[in-house]
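Entry 12.
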Amino acid sequence: MLTKLKPKSEFSKNVLTLMTGTTIAQAIPIAISPILTRIYTPEDFGVFALYMAIASIIAVVATGRYELAIMLPKKDEDAINIVALSIIISFFVSLVSLMIVFIFNAQITHLLGNPEISDWLYFIPMTVLLTGIYQSFNYWSNRKKQYKRLATSRVIQSGTTATTNLGMGFNGFGSSGLILGGVLGQAVATAILGKLIWKEDNHRLNQLKKLKIFALIKKHKKLPIFNLPNAIIDGFRLSGISILIAKFFTTATLGQFSLAWKMVQTPMSLIGGSLSQVFFQKVSSSKKSDLHRIVIKFILQASIVAAPIFLLIYFFAVDIFLFVFGENWKLAGEAASVMTPWLFLNFMSSPMANIFIVLNKQEVVLLVSVIYMILPISLLVFLNTLGFIKVLLIITIAMSIILILYILLTLYYTKKEKNEI
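Predicted 3D structure (tokens):
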């Protein structure tokens, strides 16, 4: 019998709390998307996607992945020291990226082949810093089960971004409206989340100790050694795909792809993000012998919730995109339909990385991530002459096979852990 979410369970309540906030946060950009696609061109979306691709590559190293360790210690004193460590690393990475942009702006712009991105490169260090700080606050709030706080911050971020996008778009600012909207939304959300944490936990500042931070760096060294390369690889995969689409096709094609990716990712972000955070909290506080059961239960629950949504997208994406976004976005609808199996399996498998963190086997995720990165990049490089949609279909098939094997690998390791205890 299929497992169902029980409304009265703590897990379900936490998921529903995050889902409510995330639903509102996602509903805002969805509601204004038909307007945005009519006041911004595919080229504008392409420039914004290129900016985010570059920022994302750097942002993955913003905290050295130490923010993941915030969930692990039994004592809040240790966890708050890891929060401080993550924020310190974020400032350092942001400063280094700013220096690189100042020194190599022309070279980076030439490599990307897009002169319009040149001035926006100077905003990337800010995006990196805000990402690092927000992630640190996010995991602390998750640890403290402050899901209402997280939900509120997401709604504020989405609302601020949407308002800026619309205001600047109607005034003809082009791609700058999309970029500045994202930066401002992130800044406001980080400030609000920081204020809420400060109000409740400012007394913990006296628990911050330099020696404690260095001890925790050593204790959780596997995160930067194994998980950080994994995150960098993931960043290069997602960003590399965007950069190569712009290089081998056009910026407008990248704009179409980015809209398709965003719209298909929406149900995953809506449900998967909430499930993943609560799932991480649950597995990090459970016995290792229970992990196999928890994973199976998660797979069943996630499938029941997500399958109808992704089936709808698969069969009707083109018609939906034409109706909602306008005649200029047919290619985005085709791309969305093609990518649905890949993104459905990505939705199912994304939380599984948390299992390997708990089992202290991040090297497994690293190996899978290397393969998962090499495949789409190689297929784009060698098969781009087949055309955008055909290459995207081949990539989807290859990535889907890898994700199925990854889920099976997770079940194998959790069952092995159960049998050994």
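Annotation: The chain is about 80% helix and 0% strand. The radius of gyration is 21 Å.
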